[in-house]
Structures are given as structure tokens and as C-alpha cells.
């Protein structure tokens, strides 16, 4: 059985991708720091969940042994500090180690997750700059057949986008103050992203390509949050903050535990996360799915009578 290694395989994209690779007959080796926290992945009989430090070159070399291909999904939206060091470690240092491990094990195929607007020359957003640096570096690696993917925000049942806002919207308040509310996104469904990736693994024509992945519609962040509230059945007046207020909010909120919004998030939001007529899903034979065709089934609002019927059914009455 052919073997493939996933870095970041225990995250949102990784879990969906691992399941799809299993369906295709791949043996999947998913690397993680804390194996015990992700045992739900072990329901896949051909998945090997391995505890390792991916930043340790020797350990990484050992774990990639015997694999035909590697998929690097590792990425962070915020760092512990604010000087860009955390972004550089995850987005630049790690891909360099991955390439070294590929060469050590004579692995020729690498798929790499980047981001829309990734640009090594970006001066204000550490996230976009380091994503761009990594993308350029992996594509310049000699002897490797690399395909990178540049998605807009990815959505699905267990995403960190709609679910994060859903959690915030559960806090009782008539108003919802939203930093960077006018920023634009073209959310892309997780299954469309996964399908784009698995289609390229064995096809050499995709080597060297950088694919933009977007959904079929563009929304402002305000529209997406208001839609989430509608799906939840809660009444909230979503107020988008202006540029100056958003910048102030970023400075304050990056000190909140969990850093829900930061100055780097603010800087990244200055560029719309849309494909601008250059969406490669169609080129890959994939028809992108809109948010409205997927998310309603994950936000079912039940009436008291429906809940009562459900409880009776569960009780066998």
C-alpha cells in the first residue's frame, strides 16, 4: 500500500484530507505532538498517528521514511508574540526542514498549503509575508515536484471560522461590534479544497503550479457574521468598525487570552481574500459550493415541540 505523510494532519483540513486519502487507498502517516488528543483519527484503519517533534530534523527524517509523498498543512493565524518569529517558525522554518527530509528520503512529491495574497514582499502582515516566503522557497527546491494551494477562508461543519463567530454570537447582546467588517472573502468549502489536493497528487502536470481556491461568491465579513446569526436564530445587529476603530480593537484584543483578533489579523484583512477571476477550482474540474448550500444543515434551529419529540424518540417512548 502506498504511504503518504501529513504534517498538520490533526487539524481541520488535515482530518478531512486524511479521511479522503483513506478512501483512495493510501496509507496515511499523520504527525502530531500530542497523539492522545487526536485518537479519534484512529478509526481510519490505514492511518498511523505518530507522536513526534516536526521541528526536530532527525525525527522528521525518520518519520518521512518509506513515504511516496508529503503534504504540509501546518499554519497559524496568530503567534504568541508580535514580532513575526512565530509565523517564521511555522511557515518558513518548517517547510525548509520538510524539504531537507524529503531529500534525505528521496521523496519527490510535495503538496503545500499557502494562502491567498501570500507575498514574500508583504511589509505589514507577518502572516502573508511568511506564507509567501515559504511558497517561493518550496517551489524553488531542486528535485522536488511541488504544488501549492492558496485558499480563501475554508469553511465546513467543524471549521474555526463560522464556529468561532457562532460562539461569540451566543453571548447575549443586541449589538455585535465587528473589527474589519468590510473585509471581503470568498469562502471555499473544505471538501472542494480536499478534492483539489487529492486530484493533483499523481498527475505530473500539476507540478510547479500554484492554485488559488475560492468559493463562487464574495461576501464582506459583516455579511458572513450576520448570516451566521440568522442560521442560529439569534437577533444581532452587526456593526462593522471603521478602519481606525478596527486598528484600536486589534491592539486591545491581542492581549485577550486566545488572541481572538490581532494587529497582524488587521493588517492581513487590508487585502481582500478573493480570487478576482482567477479561481483554479474550475481548471481542476471542481464546481465550488456556496456557503448557503452547505452551512444551513449545521445550524438547525429546533422548536420546543421538535426537541420534545426528539427526547421522546431517544427515550424509546
Summarize the structure.
37% of the residues lie in helices and 16% in strands. The chain is α/β, with parallel strands linked by helices and 317 residues long.
Topology of this protein?
Layout: E1 3-7, H1 12-23, E2 27-32, E3 47-51, H2 57-63, E4 69-72, H3 85-104, E5 109-113, H4 126-140, E6 145-151, E7 154-155, H5 162-169, E8 175-178, E9 184-185, E10 188-189, H6 190-200, E11 210-213, E12 219-220, H7 221-232, E13 237-240, H8 243-253, H9 263-269, H10 291-294, H11 304-314
Parallel strand pairs: 1-2, 1-4, 2-3, 4-5, 5-6, 6-11, 7-10, 8-13
Antiparallel strand pairs: 9-12
Helix pairs in contact: 1-6, 2-3, 3-4, 5-7, 8-9
Question: How would you characterize this protein structure?
Answer:
The protein has 317 residues and is α/β, with parallel strands linked by helices. It has helices at residues 12-23, 57-63, 85-104, 126-140, 162-169, 190-200, 221-232, 243-253, 263-269, 291-294, 304-314; strands at residues 3-7, 27-32, 47-51, 69-72, 109-113, 145-151, 154-155, 175-178, 184-185, 188-189, 210-213, 219-220, 237-240. The strands form four sheets. It has a seven-stranded parallel beta sheet, with helices on both faces. The protein has a two-stranded parallel ribbon with strand order 7-10. A two-stranded parallel sheet has the order 8-13. Strand 1 (3-7), helix 1 and strand 2 form a beta-alpha-beta unit. The protein has a domain at 3-156 and 187-215 and 274-288: Rossmann fold (3-Layer(aba) Sandwich).
Amino acid at each position: 500500500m502506498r504511504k503518504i505523510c501529513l504534517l498538520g494532519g490533526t487539524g481541520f483540513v488535515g482530518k478531512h484530507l486524511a479521511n479522503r486519502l483513506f478512501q483512495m487507498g493510501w496509507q496515511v502517516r499523520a504527525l502530531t505532538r500530542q497523539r492522545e488528543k487526536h485518537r479519534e483519527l484512529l478509526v481510519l484503519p490505514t492511518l498511523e498517528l505518530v507522536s513526534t517533534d516536526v521541528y526536530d530534523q532527525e525525527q522528521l527524517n525518520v518519520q518521512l521514511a518509506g513515504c511516496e509523498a508529503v503534504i504540509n498543512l501546518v499554519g497559524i493565524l496568530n503567534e504568541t508574540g508580535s514580532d513575526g518569529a512565530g509565523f517564521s517558525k511555522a511557515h518558513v522554518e518548517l517547510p525548509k526542514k520538510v524539504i531537507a527530509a524529503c531529500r534525505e528520503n528521496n521523496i519527490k512529491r510535495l503538496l503545500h498549503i499557502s494562502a491567498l495574497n501570500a507575498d514574500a514582499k508583504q511589509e505589514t502582515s507577518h502572516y502573508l509575508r511568511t506564507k509567501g516566503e515559504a511558497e517561493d522557497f518550496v517551489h524553488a527546491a531542486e528535485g522536488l515536484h511541488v504544488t501549492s494551494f492558496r485558499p480563501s477562508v475554508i469553511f465546513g461543519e467543524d471549521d474555526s471560522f463560522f464556529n468561532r463567530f457562532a460562539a461569540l454570537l451566543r453571548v447575549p447582546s443586541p449589538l455585535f461590534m465587528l473589527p474589519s467588517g468590510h473585509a471581503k472573502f470568498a469562502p471555499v468549502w473544505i471538501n472542494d479544497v480536499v478534492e483539489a489536493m487529492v486530484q493533483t497528487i499523481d498527475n505530473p502536470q500539476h507540478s510547479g503550479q500554484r492554485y488559488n481556491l475560492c468559493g463562487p461568491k464574495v461576501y464582506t465579513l459583516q455579511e458572513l457574521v450576520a448570516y451566521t446569526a440568522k442560521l442560529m436564530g439569534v437577533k444581532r445587529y452587526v456593526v462593522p468598525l471603521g478602519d481606525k476603530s478596527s486598528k484600536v480593537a486589534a491592539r486591545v484584543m491581542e492581549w485577550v487570552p486566545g488572541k481572538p483578533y490581532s494587529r497582524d489579523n488587521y493588517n492581513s484583512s487590508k487585502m481582500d481574500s478573493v480570487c478576482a477571476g482567477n479561481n483554479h477550482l474550475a481548471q481542476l474540474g471542481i464546481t465550488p459550493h456556496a456557503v448557503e448550500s452547505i452551512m444551513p444543515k449545521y445550524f438547525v434551529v429546533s422548536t420546543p415541540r421538535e426537541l420534545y419529540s426528539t427526547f421522546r424518540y431517544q427515550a424509546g417512548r
